[in-house]
């Protein structure tokens, strides 16, 4: 999967000029850069959701229906329980992943079972991010995009979230693109770094 000739300009501010990126299908593709460097905007371009000002060529990027995109600030049904939320993802995705993948079996038993009946709106931000990442990983897509999936998440939940994301690449051979400011969290994971700015 590649992006070629990617350019984006807002008025007199140039965020990207003829950027070329090749994405790995054997490592987590991690886009880094300073605030305002255009990381989320590049994710939006890859996912086909904007911005209109962005120009470039997408090579072997899956169709929009084959992309799972988890935004940084997710607005979700706060009155649904964790159980109801995961059930929805199971219906949209592949529930066999939970029974076939050891990572998900462990996370379900050690983490999710403890909060299974809690409403999403009563979870901490880190717990909510973990539940939604778990759900995203149940979907059967070709490309998974995560915008700052560990932002504001404690160390323990960060490890859980990153293990789920890594399993997409290592166990299911999926293409994963994510943004992060905290590369030290990923020191033990297979990572392909993409620096913006």
Question: Strand sequence of the main sheet, in spatial order?
Answer: 5-6-7-3-8
pLDDT < 50 runs, ≥5 residues = none
Spell out the helices and strands N to C.
EEEHEEHHHHEHEE
Q: How many angstroms separate the termini? A: 21 Å
Structural class: alpha/beta
CATH-derived architecture:
3-Layer(aba) Sandwich
CATH fold topology: Rossmann fold
**Beta-strand level of the residues, as a percent range?**
15-25%
CATH superfamily: P-loop containing nucleotide triphosphate hydrolases
Query: Number of helical runs?
Result: 6
Q: Quick one: overall form?
A: globular
Number of domains: 1
The biggest beta sheet reads: 5 strands, parallel
CATH class label:
Alpha Beta
Q: Would you report the number of β strands?
A: 8
Average pLDDT level? 91
Helix content: 25-40%
Radius of gyration: 17 Å
Topology:
Elements: E1 2-10, E2 13-22, E3 28-32, H1 39-47, E4 55-59, E5 67-70, H2 82-92, H3 96-100, H4 102-115, H5 125-138, E6 143-146, H6 155-170, E7 175-179, E8 191-195
Parallel strand pairs: 3-7, 3-8, 5-6, 6-7
Antiparallel strand pairs: 1-2, 1-4
Helix pairs in contact: 2-5, 5-6
Short description:
The protein is 35% helix and 24% strand. It has 197 residues and is of the alpha/beta class. It is globular, with a radius of gyration of 17 Å.
Question: How would you describe this structure in keywords?
Answer:
197 residues; Rossmann fold; five-stranded parallel sheet; three-stranded antiparallel sheet
Could you explain how this protein is built, in words?
By secondary structure, the protein is α/β, with parallel strands linked by helices. It has helices at residues 39-47, 82-92, 96-100, 102-115, 125-138, 155-170; strands spanning 2-10, 13-22, 28-32, 55-59, 67-70, 143-146, 175-179, 191-195. α5 runs parallel beside α6 (155-170). It has one domain: P-loop containing nucleotide triphosphate hydrolases (Rossmann fold).
């Amino acid at each position: 999967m590649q992006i070629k000739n990617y350019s984006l300009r807002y008025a007199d501010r140039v965020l990207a000029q003829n950027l070329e990126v090749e994405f790995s299908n054997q490592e987590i593709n991690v886009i880094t850069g300073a605030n305002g460097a255009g990381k989320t905007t590049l994710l939006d371009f890859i996912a086909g959701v904007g911005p209109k000002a962005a120009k470039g060529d997408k090579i072997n990027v899956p169709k929009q229906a084959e992309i799972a995109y988890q935004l940084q600030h997710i607005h979700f049904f706060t009155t649904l329980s964790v159980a109801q939320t995961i059930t929805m993802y199971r219906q949209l995705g592949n529930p066999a992943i939970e029974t076939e993948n050891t990572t998900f079996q462990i996370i379900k038993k050690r983490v999710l079972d403890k909060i299974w009946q809690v409403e999403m709106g009563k979870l901490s931000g880190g717990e909510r991010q973990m539940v939604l990442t778990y759900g995203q990983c149940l979907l059967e897509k070709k490309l998974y995009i995560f915008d700052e999936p560990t932002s504001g998440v404690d160390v323990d939940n960060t490890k859980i979230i990153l293990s789920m994301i890594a399993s997409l690449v290592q166990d299911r051979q999926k293409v994963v693109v994510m943004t992060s400011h905290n590369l030290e969290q990923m020191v033990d994971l297979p990572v392909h770094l993409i620096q913006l700015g």
